[in-house]
Design brief:
The protein is of the alpha+beta class and about 550 residues long. The protein contains 18 helices and 22 strands. It starts with 11 loop residues before the first helix and ends in an 11-residue tail after the last helix.
Amino acid sequence: MPEQNMLNESGGGKKQLNIWLPLLFSLVLVIGMLLGSRLTETMGPKPNKNANKILPVKEPGTLEELVRFIDARYVDDVNIQELSEDAIHHILDQLDPHSTYISAEKVSEVREQLDGSFVGVGIEFIVVDDTITVLKPSDKGPAAQAGVLAGDQILTINDSLIAGQDLQSSEFMKLFRGERGTKANVGVKRKGELHEFEITRDEVKLPSLDVAYEIESGIGFIKLSRFSSETSAEFIQALERLVEQDEVKKLIIDLRDNPGGYLTEAVEILSQLFTEKDRLLVFTEGEKSTRLEYKTTGRPFYQIDEVAVLVNENSASASEIIAGAIQDWDRGYIVGRRTFGKGLVQEEYSLRDGSALRLTIARYYTPSGRSIQKDYDAGEDRYNAEFDQRWASGELFVSDSIKQVDSLAFETPSGRIVYAGGGITPDYFIPLDSILLNDNYIALRPFVQEYAFRYFRENESVLTFESAEDFDKNFIVPDDVIDDFIAFAKEGGVNKVVELIGSTKRYFKSHLKSQIAFLKYDYEAQFTEINANDEFVLKALQLLRDGIPIAKQESSN
């Protein structure tokens, strides 16, 4: 049977096949990927649904034929899907850390964050004693429209008991998700009484703007958690309310822990902060991607005089685009710690099996020409462990520990020196709060939300205040509540907790109060309490209040 060209080496043939088979599948699958249609661009323009671009299809090559033979005739059973995914991950590992493969099962979950919506019942919940307890139903969402209220304990879904089943939060979430128009019959316990609701699953908005309010007379505060397809619209709507109702003239934009998203959303927000037309905000360029420039429209809806942007080591991508443009044009203050350092642009391609590829196709540059992408030549593990490296070097605590390379220095119009290579260095440095490294903090922090909920549920009738402002000024967490909180944590498995004193005690009092404020009122009440003790926010307020000229800034410790 010469056509089979069989190998007859003692195990050698099989060993070689095991080594080369993933690589062969990699090459073939990459060809298949290139035949997919362009779907979205993370960090790039939002997808144009009317203009799917299909790359040219070529005749099957030798590698494809070889894989077909292996699949059809190999002596042992071959798990094509498993080999395929291993091969894809192997090949992408040779590229940059942000070129990734998304399995078909994960595609919808990953895209929800960028789409800004999902299909479900729309509740924010906490698991208390293995029972889902509703914190807040989504505003105008399916659950709220059906009559579900904060504090409801969900016992059943479609006649299946879910209370006391020791399920993970992710498993509960799957029960609430489904196709639009499908029904979820939910049984709840409310103040000792049982109620049933028929909820029709529908689209639920997933806001990327956490809160927007006047934090001080004439100064607004907006926190963005990511850059989804709706972020700029949410931002402009919030700005409208702040300017027209509260007469805000100065603005704090909180981008801490914001991992980024759509580049164009960041550009649209920046266009609201510059009055000049055609001012360069960011440009992208790659080996196979021509230079694309994004500029201001010169038509902001509202006039904002001064801006402060809050960033930290988890501010990445589109967050860095905003911080970079604000800094390069001397437009405002950058407050915090050096940002993540992601200056790569991805395009997303849909694959034939429903999975997707996010492939880096360009770098982005700030207006001065800075590339802020940090080095990834040492491998993905070291790339992702940079927080540990910054901690070890002291950079998280002292600004002078930030290493800058003179050859990567750029100059702003006012003559300030800014640097490329590894994130945006802030104009005003805020060290990492040492409480985050405190053993008590690490042990107790996971119990705050559940304890605050229990406390609120048991004391709601006596927490009587005229308004959220009245609550903020007059409610004080008693010392015996802190003692009870520690006892609660010990019941939950925390063994080594010493008496809380000083700043640690004040922190937990503030944190518990902020959670209670959220449960009684809303996110604005919660952030009012959080921001009152936030060093980032306090520094930004000082800068905006005093009106220090941007060009005369100096880093502070």
